[in-house]
């Protein structure tokens, strides 16, 4: 089957029929050394889709709480996390571009059955933990829009899967554009609110560039911010999404693709960075204002997504709650798309198992609904908000199990896609990964020790819990050490072969077929 136009690529559907999906090839001539910026627009997509996870309800929740409790003191976490995310996400993209396999497939090829299965379990937990903020955020949005109780809203989020998939017939890109428009609407409102709240520029800059953590509560919130920004499932997602593009199999073509993906990721993460900074700044300025009303002060003391709409009152007045709810709903549903893709790629890569997108989404959503429903029934809105923080912390603790394999794979497999000293990149990424893992481990150990010391349990029970807890921590550290110090098999990068005709042509059909299809017209089919 031949393509009907240069802007179309042909793929085989799971049912065996031939279909044409909208996917522009990057460069037709793989031997050309032309550095045309026209090619850049063909690479657009993966980075912006991945960046949706950086402005999801989990990010909004942690941003709001950090601003309300610590004003601008934790802004430096956003800056560091964004820089780290750019480096790590570009490595994930480079891995897919250079090797032709995404991170989960590399893990299956590298590790034996038991470690591979355990890594899959951890990755699936990360996908579910990422979906919990989307469930709760959607429930909060429904509460603000229609005054539906939070626990009922949690149950209704299961139907959002069916609604989302029903809209897919109009085209994924049109749906994503609508969602992005709604999310950026709330971003513009926060930018405008910055004018009304008038945060001190000096204090904001001080918070951005002077690291400080005052108290154990700040450390926990910082880890939540970090977990909400650098998510493990995003590494699997980004390394797979780049395989949906047609990349020339030559050294110059690979370097150009890696450079364009780095630029695209930088632009997408810059937008996410500005949104997160604006949310923290608005929350910090409004909740720490001297003329705050008693009602708003009470909201700030226990701020969550369900109470945050008053921050936009100066911009849109009485419509603040409705607008914030629509944007929150859009944020949650757009993150659902990334979660669906990530779950598909994780399952396909680790287990070579594929499910229909609607079934995969429904399974993940059901697993996320259970803890969300229990917490919403017992703890109400405040408890659901705290669950978002806990889910973000879980993501942060699980990050090493995706980050370490990525660092080890990219240190030996993606040097051809680099424009600077590979040793410098490797050292930088290991330093970033080491800091993230060190902060997580320090907080985990210190919090557990404080919990034991200040508990009111009997001595024997404290000793038993201590032995059990430290055994779990030791197992956690041993698993990370295994990944770090295990010697990887020698692997030849895909481009090292001089016989380019034997190289699998990108885009990968199985990768694209797992994405939710656009509507197909008869003119697109041969």
TrEMBL record:
<protein>
    <submittedName>
        <fullName>NRAMP family</fullName>
    </submittedName>
</protein>
<feature type="transmembrane region" description="Helical">
    <location>
        <begin position="75"/>
        <end position="97"/>
    </location>
</feature>
<feature type="region of interest" description="Disordered">
    <location>
        <begin position="1"/>
        <end position="25"/>
    </location>
</feature>
<feature type="transmembrane region" description="Helical">
    <location>
        <begin position="117"/>
        <end position="142"/>
    </location>
</feature>
<dbReference type="GO" id="GO:0005886">
    <property type="term" value="C:plasma membrane"/>
</dbReference>
<feature type="transmembrane region" description="Helical">
    <location>
        <begin position="217"/>
        <end position="237"/>
    </location>
</feature>
<keyword id="KW-1133">Transmembrane helix</keyword>
<feature type="transmembrane region" description="Helical">
    <location>
        <begin position="179"/>
        <end position="197"/>
    </location>
</feature>
<feature type="transmembrane region" description="Helical">
    <location>
        <begin position="387"/>
        <end position="407"/>
    </location>
</feature>
<dbReference type="GO" id="GO:0015086">
    <property type="term" value="F:cadmium ion transmembrane transporter activity"/>
</dbReference>
<feature type="compositionally biased region" description="Low complexity">
    <location>
        <begin position="13"/>
        <end position="24"/>
    </location>
</feature>
<dbReference type="InterPro" id="IPR001046">
    <property type="entry name" value="NRAMP_fam"/>
</dbReference>
<feature type="transmembrane region" description="Helical">
    <location>
        <begin position="40"/>
        <end position="55"/>
    </location>
</feature>
<feature type="transmembrane region" description="Helical">
    <location>
        <begin position="323"/>
        <end position="342"/>
    </location>
</feature>
<keyword id="KW-0472">Membrane</keyword>
<feature type="compositionally biased region" description="Polar residues">
    <location>
        <begin position="1"/>
        <end position="12"/>
    </location>
</feature>
<dbReference type="GO" id="GO:0034755">
    <property type="term" value="P:iron ion transmembrane transport"/>
</dbReference>
<feature type="transmembrane region" description="Helical">
    <location>
        <begin position="362"/>
        <end position="381"/>
    </location>
</feature>
<dbReference type="Pfam" id="PF01566">
    <property type="entry name" value="Nramp"/>
</dbReference>
<comment type="similarity">
    <text>Belongs to the NRAMP (TC 2.A.55) family.</text>
</comment>
<feature type="transmembrane region" description="Helical">
    <location>
        <begin position="148"/>
        <end position="167"/>
    </location>
</feature>
<feature type="transmembrane region" description="Helical">
    <location>
        <begin position="459"/>
        <end position="485"/>
    </location>
</feature>
<feature type="transmembrane region" description="Helical">
    <location>
        <begin position="258"/>
        <end position="286"/>
    </location>
</feature>
<keyword id="KW-0812">Transmembrane</keyword>
<feature type="transmembrane region" description="Helical">
    <location>
        <begin position="428"/>
        <end position="453"/>
    </location>
</feature>
<dbReference type="GO" id="GO:0005384">
    <property type="term" value="F:manganese ion transmembrane transporter activity"/>
</dbReference>
């Amino acid at each position: 089957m031949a393509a009907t136009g240069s802007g179309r690529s042909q793929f085989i559907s799971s049912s065996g029929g031939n279909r044409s999906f909208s996917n522009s090839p990057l460069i037709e001539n793989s031997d050309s050394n032309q550095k045309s910026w026209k090619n850049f627009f063909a690479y657009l997509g993966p980075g912006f889709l991945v960046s949706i996870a950086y402005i999801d309800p989990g990010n909004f929740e942690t941003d709001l709480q950090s601003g309300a409790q610590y004003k601008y003191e934790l802004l430096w976490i956003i800056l560091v996390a964004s820089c780290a995310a750019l480096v790590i996400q570009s490595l994930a993209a480079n891995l897919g571009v250079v090797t032709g396999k995404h991170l989960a497939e590399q893990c299956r090829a590298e590790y034996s059955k038991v470690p591979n299965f355990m890594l899959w379990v951890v990755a699936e937990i990360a996908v579910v933990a990422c979906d919990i903020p989307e469930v709760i955020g959607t429930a909060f949005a429904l509460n603000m829009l229609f005054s539906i109780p939070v626990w009922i809203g949690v149950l209704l989020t299961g139907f959002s899967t069916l609604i989302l998939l029903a809209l897919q017939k109009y085209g994924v890109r049109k749906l994503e554009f609508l969602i992005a428009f709604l999310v950026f609407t709330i971003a513009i409102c926060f930018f405008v609110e910055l004018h009304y709240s008038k945060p001190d520029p000096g204090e904001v800059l001080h918070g951005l560039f002077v690291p400080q953590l005052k108290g154990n509560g700040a450390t926990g919130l910082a880890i939540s911010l970090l977990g909400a920004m650098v998510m493990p499932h995003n590494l699997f997602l980004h390394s797979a999404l780049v395989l949906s593009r047609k990349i020339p199999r030559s050294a110059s073509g690979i370097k150009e693709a890696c450079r364009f993906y780095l630029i695209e990721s930088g632009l997408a993460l810059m937008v996410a960075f500005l949104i997160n900074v604006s949310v923290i700044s608005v929350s910090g300025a409004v909740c720490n204002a001297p003329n705050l009303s008693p009602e708003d002060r009470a909201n700030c003391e226990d701020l969550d997504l369900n109470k945050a709409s008053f921050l936009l009152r100066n911009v849109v007045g009485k419509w603040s709650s409705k607008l914030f709810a629509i944007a929150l709903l859009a944020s949650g549903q757009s993150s659902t798309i990334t979660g669906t893709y990530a779950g598909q790629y994780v399952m396909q890569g680790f287990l070579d198992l594929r499910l229909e997108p609607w079934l995969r989404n429904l399974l993940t959503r059901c697993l996320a609904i259970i803890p969300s429903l229990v917490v919403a029934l017992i703890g109400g809105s405040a408890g659901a908000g705290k669950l978002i923080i806990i889910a973000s912390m879980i993501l942060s603790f699980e990050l090493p199990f995706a980050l370490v394999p990525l660092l080890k794979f990219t240190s030996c497999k993606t040097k051809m896609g680099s424009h600077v000293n590979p040793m410098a990149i490797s050292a930088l990424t290991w330093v970033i990964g080491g800091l993230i893992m060190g902060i997580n481990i320090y907080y985990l150990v210190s919090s557990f020790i404080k919990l034991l010391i200040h508990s009111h349990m009997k001595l024997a029970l404290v000793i038993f819990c201590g032995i059990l807890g430290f055994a779990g921590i030791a197992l956690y550290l041993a698993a990370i050490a295994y990944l770090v110090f295990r010697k990887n098999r020698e692997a030849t990068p895909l481009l090292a072969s001089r016989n380019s005709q034997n190289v699998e042509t990108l885009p990968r059909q199985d990768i694209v077929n797992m994405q939710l299809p656009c509507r197909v017209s008869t003119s697109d089919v041969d």
